Amino acid sequence: MSRKRSRYNRLVLCLFVLIAPFFLMAATTSDLTSLSLEELMQIPVFGASKFEQKTSNAPSSITIVTSDDIQKYGYRTLADLLRSVRGFYVTYDRNYQYAGIRGFGIPGDYNSRILIQIDGHRI
Hints:
The chain is α+β, with helices and mostly antiparallel strands. Helix content is 37%, strand content 16%. The longest helix is centred in the N-terminal third of the chain and has 27 residues, at 2-28.
């Protein structure tokens, strides 16, 4: 009996772990397209300065891509997403994809001068 109960508890836990992110994502998704330009400039970001600040005060170029954008445009890889960001380009040498910014791509650099963060974490 204890073995069946343990198996049942594991199944319930697995289902919860698989389903919970969908409910959390639905609860936190907001529509940025309905905001005015002034409201968009007041959205706090966490980026190059390593603390939360308004987008208008950030010392670097910031592009915000939401999960809705990823679903809407069908991005599969980071390279697909970066191709849509103004100022970025992506090259492919039949092994790897390399990103460049505004025409500055040094051969052999291997993207060592680009910082891309997701929620403040390097990728």
